[in-house]
Design goal:
Blueprint: H1 3-28, H2 43-51, H3 72-79, H4 84-106, H5 111-123, H6 125-132, H7 136-153, H8 157-168, H9 172-192, H10 196-213, H11 217-228, H12 232-236, H13 245-265, H14 271-284, H15 293-310, H16 317-339, H17 347-355, H18 371-375
Helix pairs in contact: 1-4, 1-5, 4-5, 4-7, 5-15, 7-8, 7-9, 9-10, 9-14, 13-15, 14-15
Length: about 375
Amino acid sequence: MNKPETKTKNFNTTYLFLVLALLLTFRAIPLLKGSIGSFGYDYGFYLYAASHLNPLSPTGWLVALWGGYSNPLFYLAKIFFIPPNIIINQLYLIFSVLLALSFYWLFGKNKTAGILAVFFCAISLVQAESYTMFLWKSWAALPFLILAFKFYTSKNWWLLSLSILAVALTHRTTLIILLLTLSITFAVELILEKKYRFFLKYLLVLLTFIFIGLFLPQVKNITSDLIQNHNTYVRSGLFLDGQNLFKILWPFLLLGLPGIYLYIKRKQPLIITVFTVLCVTWFIFQLPFYRRFLIYLDLSLIFYSAYFLSQLTYSSRAKKIALGIIIIFLSWQAFNFTFTKQPLISRQEIQEIKNFNHPGAFVLAVSADDAPWLLG
């Protein structure tokens, strides 16, 4: 390796560590006001699930497939006597770093786009909201979702299978969007390659699997619950309710839309485009948990924004200054958004719950808002 290549590699490594440090900084900001579990309503449910499980249960490891709060990693923690709060809290931060790194790997040789994607993961308001809400299963699955896209485009079927399995054991919603994306992408590629006979065989096999799956009790119950559920909060997914979504998404829309144009024009791998169309369609038609699909849509905008900026040349001082202004503005916006977040429960209340240990006594929860922390 010659000196210019070595210098470039060192610069890329330095920038990667800098943006990862920025990501960790933004993830740590909420800790100034309370533990990360005090911001997310579901934290207590995860803590309870990790604390009350049977590691010898033959079906417990598959609980994520039908929507429970447990996870195979909780069983491993139980077997090796790792405290539940450690496995939940520390892994949550690790998943955040892995999500950013999975974007870096997704872009492969385009290191500029990879570093920009890591930066956008750090300053994304949608990702900040989902992190503070403590959507543990979502964050556990997201790195494997991105890696599945990477392995599909590189035709590494073995690692793709492992990524799909990891998502299946972690988060049902992410599994649905991943399988839909892979199925549609493969079908469209067959049509574009004019392999019509193979496409018809593939379609027949796919419909057969769907038909059989709908008759399986667990799949049938899950499908019925998702489609026929009339609870507004369940259908919406309770994510960024009451927020001006354009105000939150506009920077990535501004950068991502020209990125989409360039990406499609240059005939880049189809899978990200299919993923984006699916997310937009899901949100527009308000399918189950549609507001949670903003998390996936935001990931696609992160991808296209990084791709767009990586295609520009920064030879002139004006372009470098413009990029610097974008970085500073988005960083400030992310800091302000994250710093204004308030815990749902105070440190004093958490300590009071922990200290309550009176044999024969009980606690009466007068509000559903108290339930997850009392349960945990």
